[in-house]
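Section 5: illustrative case.
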């Protein structure tokens, strides 16, 4: 895949933040310097001066490199995570990059928009990080970022989350919910809808320390679905309810060697393709 061929920088352990020519890379560094210098020479802080020196050094580094087009890192923009967000990054690279971002590029509320300048943080970039972690099965890491978004709830507008974290920018914006809803619905609850075929797959990933969880009134096509998990004295019980009949529900979940499965009280076998159920109400009991 071209993204993995052209944007991955092995020496950095990261994807590039843009692809272009050597001249464009030098121009990007020069543009960053001009942006900082807009404050005026007398108003530059010590941090501003450090950043100018960084970009000047980057210009010299780029100038010494061979001509041609390639991936470049200039300000370590948060978009370096998007190959993991879309799931196209190979797992080994993804884990390396995700760990690097968490260890080096994160502030109080998630990734900096620029890990070089280390100032602003945004709900979209923190949300992308949460989705990316979930894509590679790292449930606890995904929830760590979800929690960062939740911490900014109600800061500026009751019932909402601001664009910039924790409490500025647009007082409400659609993408603030992205980093909460997708990781929870798509990864934690593991809901994979195929509404056109009236089929829903449930493949939950339970975070550390969680036992009971539920989601209700979830619209999937023309149907309304509810899904819950509860730890009981009998085992782990899952409930799936739907408003409409005629749908198929498939439960996958983590493989549990030696476990016994019961659907609506009847023993069933679990296969790699999951446990299939029909009807508006189903109860699945897993006994270990």
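Designed sequence:
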């Amino acid at each position: 895949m071209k993204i993995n061929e052209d944007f991955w920088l092995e020496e950095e352990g990261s994807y590039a933040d843009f692809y272009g020519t050597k001249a464009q890379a030098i121009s990007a560094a020069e543009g960053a310097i001009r942006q900082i210098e807009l404050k005026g020479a007398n108003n530059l802080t010590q941090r501003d001066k450090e950043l100018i020196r960084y970009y000047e050094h980057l210009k010299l580094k780029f100038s010494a490199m061979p001509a041609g087009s390639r991936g470049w890192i200039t300000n370590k923009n948060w978009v370096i995570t998007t190959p993991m967000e879309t799931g196209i990054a190979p797992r080994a690279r993804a884990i390396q990059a995700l760990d690097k971002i968490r260890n080096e590029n994160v502030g109080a509320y998630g990734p900096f928009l620029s890990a070089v300048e280390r100032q602003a943080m945004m709900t979209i970039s923190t949300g992308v990080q949460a989705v990316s972690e979930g894509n590679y099965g790292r449930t606890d890491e995904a929830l760590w970022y979800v929690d960062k978004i939740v911490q900014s709830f109600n800061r500026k507008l009751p019932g909402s989350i601001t664009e910039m974290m924790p409490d500025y920018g647009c007082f409400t914006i659609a993408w603030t919910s992205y980093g909460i809803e997708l990781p929870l619905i798509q990864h934690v609850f593991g809901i994979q809808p195929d509404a056109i075929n009236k089929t829903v797959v449930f493949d939950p990933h339970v975070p550390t320390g969680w036992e009971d969880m539920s989601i209700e009134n979830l619209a999937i096509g023309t149907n309304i679905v509810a899904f819950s998990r509860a730890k009981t004295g009998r085992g782990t019980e899952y409930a799936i309810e739907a408003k409409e009949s005629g749908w198929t529900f498939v439960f996958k979940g983590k493989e549990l060697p030696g476990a016994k499965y019961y659907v609506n009280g009847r023993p069933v076998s679990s296969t790699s393709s999951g446990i299939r159920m029909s009807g508006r109400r189903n109860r699945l009991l897993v006994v270990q």
